[in-house]
Amino acid sequence: MHTLKNEYPAFGGNYTVIHHTQLINELVGAGKIQLSISSDAYTVTFHDPCYLGRHNNIFDAPREDLKLAGLEVIEMPRHSAKSFCCGAGGAQMWKEEEQGSSRVNTTRFAEAKSALKNAGSPAGANTIAVGCPFCLTMMSDASKADGGQIQVKDVAEIVAEKLK
C-alpha cells in the first residue's frame, strides 16, 4: 500500500490506494457485507503496523473493523503514532539481528501479551490483531516461541470469521 500510494507517483503511477481495513469499513458501511455479532465476542489488542500508522496516519480503520465485528479493543502502552515496530520493518525478517538484549518481535509480543493479561477478561483475551503480513509473521513467530497460547490474526481474518 505504502509503495503504490506514496512512491509510484514519482514514476508516473498515480493510483487511488486504500488499506484493506479501510475497504472493510467501506463495505460494512455500505451494507455490502454484514457481520454476525454473537456472544462469543472476545478482547483483542491491535498492533499498529509502522507503514500503516506512522507512515500513512491510518489508525482508526483497523480498530473500527474490530469493533464492528463485536470485539473489545484494548490498547498497548505504545500504540497509534507511538507504536513500537514488530521488527520486520527494520529488515529483521530477512537478516540476522544485531546484538541486543532481546529480539524486536519478542519485545513487542511481550507488550501485547501484557496488555491482554491486564484486559480483565483473561478467558477470552488471547488474540493480537494486526494489519500487515510482515507483522503477522513476526508476531506469530514470537507467539510460537512463547508457547503459542496467544493467537495472532489479521483484522481481515477476524472480520471473515464474523461474516453472515
Structure characterization notes:
The chain is of the alpha/beta class. The chain has a single domain (2-161), classed as Rossmann fold. The protein has helices spanning 2-7, 20-29, 60-68, 104-117, 133-145, 155-161, and strands at residues 43-46, 72-74, 127-130, 151-154. The chain has a 4-stranded parallel beta sheet, with helices on both faces. Strand 3, helix 5 (133-145) and strand 4 form a beta-alpha-beta unit. Helix 3 (60-68) runs parallel beside helix 6. The longest helix is centred in the last third of the chain and has 14 residues, at 104-117. The model has no long low-confidence stretch (mean pLDDT 87).
What's the short version?
With 164 residues, the protein is of the alpha/beta class. It is built from 6 helices and 4 strands; from the N terminus they run ααβαβαβαβα.
